[in-house]
Write a structure and sequence with these properties.
The complex is a heterodimer of chains A (about 170) and B (about 425).
Chain A: H1 2-39, H2 48-69, H3 85-116, H4 130-133, H5 136-154
Chain B: H1 2-15, H2 20-34, H3 39-50, H4 57-70, H5 73-85, H6 91-104, H7 110-127, H8 132-142, H9 153-161, H10 168-174, H11 176-197, H12 207-233, H13 238-257, H14 265-295, H15 298-309, H16 313-330, H17 333-350, H18 355-370, H19 377-386, H20 390-413, H21 415-424
Helix pairs in contact in B: 1-2, 2-14, 3-14, 4-9, 4-13, 4-14, 5-6, 5-12, 6-7, 6-8, 6-11, 7-8, 7-19, 8-19, 8-20, 9-17, 10-21, 11-20, 12-13, 14-17, 15-17, 16-17, 16-18, 17-18, 18-20, 20-21
The chains are: A mainly alpha (about 170), B mainly alpha (about 425).
Chain lengths: ~170, ~425
Amino acid sequence: MARLYITWMDRLYLAAMVVSGIALLVMTVVIPVGIFFRYVLNRGISWPEPVAILCMVTFTFIGAAVSYRAGGHIAVKMLTDRVPEGCQRLLARLVDLLMLVISALMLWYSFFLCQGLWFQPVAEFPLLTAGQTYLPLPVGSAILILFVIERLLFGSQAQRPLVMLGNPE
Amino acid sequence: MDALVLLLTLAVLLAVGMPVAFAVGLSAVVGALWIGLPLEALMIQITSGVNKFTLLAIPFFILAGAIMAEGGIARRLVNFAYLFVGFIRGGLSLVNIMASTFFGAISGSSVADTASVGSVMIPEMEKKGYPRAYAAAVTASGSVQAILIPPSHNSVIYSLAAGGTVSVAALFIAGVLPGLLMGGSLMLMCMLFARRRGYPKGEPITLKAALKISVDALWGLMTVVIILGGILSGIFTATESAAVACLWAFFVTMFIYRDYRWNELPKLMFRTVKTVTIVMILIGFAAGFGAVMTWMQLPTRITEFFTSLSDNKYVILMYINILLLLIGTLMDMAPIILILTPVLLPVTNALGIDPVHFGMIMMVNLGIGLITPPVGSVLFVASAVSKQNIEAVVRSMLPFYGMLLAVLALITWIPAISLWLPRLLGMM
């Protein structure tokens, strides 16, 4: 059971990583495209900006879950490093539970936010509705919840070869 | 009472070791519940924290710096710096600091600076008879410049935290002189040490080699020319210049330097995803936290508190400096900028201090915090790269702390160091 769950989390991790990577790539490319149109083709286009921003929101909330599983988020370790080991383990579990609380709250309220704004149009970007542009929040939070549960049950997965992809040597 | 709930929650969550970004988010939730604010509104604040056009500059600048650092820019900048200061007594320590100045013009990250310049310079300095811990201390203190020399993504974060009232371009230009002042004073100190301890001069370089080294480095240094040139001439916005810098960094690394293999690119993307999202999610949560603080009218009350301490603005600035230094030793830069700027900026505005000037004061303070224990990311990296324990590095660094504090005092009390250049260029 544990192995199955972790295997699926590996897949999810990779997918989330690729999505964030692509979002980063797209936003890096569309802004220069906008500049190209403005100066070379003498035609201002409006879509690169909202596309880049949408990519950034996607990248932020999906990527935050990725960084969580990779153990990348910075914490203040000054106090926790100085307590006895048993206490440290207890605090680590407490932090996992707190992470569960914040990610569940995020999922819950951002879901309602998406639902409420699902049909409200966005002026700058007619392709999507306001609710849809908020989608990265609940999706990212859901992924985060799955990773937090994994950590709560099976401990940190930050040392898995797949998760360490891209770490400095 | 409201404020106490908010801050106490944050303090407790940080103390138990919750990741800073999520601790900020959860305390914002607690604060919002306490004052009866609907959490959907908080979610909107969190998202609107990260869907700003200016903010795009942060991933772009970090990506550009990462591409350059991977492509072996550090070695080239070190060689380039060698041409200017290598022949002086204590040459390699000066080269180390000047290479950091150049590196700062490509990447705004002191951590990346220490890692890349340090891994080139520390072994080399040791070979020439410098103690390892001293080499690490020079590298770490030198890298503080990177957050002042444009482009600096911390300036973008500050501009954002200041609610968009301070332009990124003005902050970039304002950082030039303080950065150079810092580099210059550190070099001066290295020269004194070199004389006293008899560190060697470097070997001369032939004109032909010098030419090749210059051309090689200038490809990379074009990044800052593109960024500043684009912003100053009005061709690009700061955000656009950051995106162009990414493309330029990519072009130079893959087609000019050609030290980096194509199949390693996904790894670079992954790494950037990991480093940037940490900052971005923090910015989102901090926006929520900031909104809750504003609803609690915390900034107003803190302004009243500070202005009640003294009538003299320099005395209040000193208190603020001490506060920033203390918090800076405990926490990383980005969260402090995000949380404290909206709180402290009203204070300094009330005192008639220019927000651009205050930005520089904040950067220097927090930059010093990066190299001080107990929590100093640059210090940790310097210790890891040099394989010296933190105590040894800190001991070698003591005189450097003194120098950096003196620079901080100058930047605090002489606004012209920060404001002369942007005013000259008509940016403010």
